[in-house]
Amino acid sequence: MAKTIPMIITNNNILVKDKESDAFVPFEMPGVEHDINIPFYHQFAAKIAESQRHFKLFINSIYGKKYSKNILAIIVPDDTSPLEAIFIKEFFLNSGCCKGVAQMTMGQALSKEDSKYISLSRSSRNIILQYINNNEIKAKKYYDVDEYDVATIHEDAKRIHIDVEYTEVPIYINNFNMNMDDFSSIGTVISTKDFMAKIAVVDVEKL
């Protein structure tokens, strides 16, 4: 049976679950400069072979030589575009260190208990409000990360989808990057530790 390796693409690096523990080990590509408005992995495209080689060596260092039989379960920021999702899939699939790639957004990983819930998160570019039903994103709304109103977003959460207008649906605040203090009063805060625990074991069938 293929081994699933949980990964998180954060605002500034890639975290990979260690083979021997629940700890996540950071992978950082040498020479990558961070732009506040552009995800760092965009720069992988300019030196794709080199970036893939570095990642393959990194996986080899923590998973050994049988890494090519693994499935990478990649958790991506909630505002990852369809084109970015394609690039992420192709980059890792063609890195030579896995047999398959599965993706889900951070918002989709916030609760394993609730079939319906609302997620709220912050990336390097946006505040992202989502309604998730049976692991599928049914509605999504973006707000400028530098200019937003908490009360407006809270009201928008109540009517983001017709499903939530007449029933009580839990709101989860993704505080993985420890930058969501403004929203702590409107939902259940998921800390970095909580988030890591939730994805230490990922069900690939749901990705």
Describe this structure in words.
By secondary structure, the chain is α/β, with parallel strands linked by helices. Helix content is 23%, strand content 28%. It has five helices and ten strands. It has helices at residues 48-63, 82-93, 150-157, 162-165, 192-199; strands at residues 4-9, 14-17, 24-27, 71-76, 100-105, 116-122, 126-133, 136-144, 171-174, 188-190. A five-stranded mixed beta sheet has the order 3-2-1-4-5, covered by helices on one side. A five-stranded mixed beta sheet has the order 8-7-6-9-10. A hairpin with a 6-residue loop joins strand 2 and strand 3. The longest helix is centred in the N-terminal third of the chain and has 16 residues, at 48-63. It is globular, with a radius of gyration of 17 Å.
Can you tag this structure with a few keywords?
5 helices, 207 residues, five-stranded mixed β-sheet
The SS-based structural class is alpha/beta
Distance between the termini: 17 Å
General form: globular
Q: Beta-strand percentage? A: 25-35%
Q: Biggest sheet: strands side by side, in what order?
A: 3-2-1-4-5
Q: Overall pLDDT, averaged?
A: 89
Short description:
The chain has five helices and ten strands.
Write the layout of secondary structure elements.
Layout: E1 4-9, E2 14-17, E3 24-27, H1 48-63, E4 71-76, H2 82-93, E5 100-105, E6 116-122, E7 126-133, E8 136-144, H3 150-157, H4 162-165, E9 171-174, E10 188-190, H5 192-199
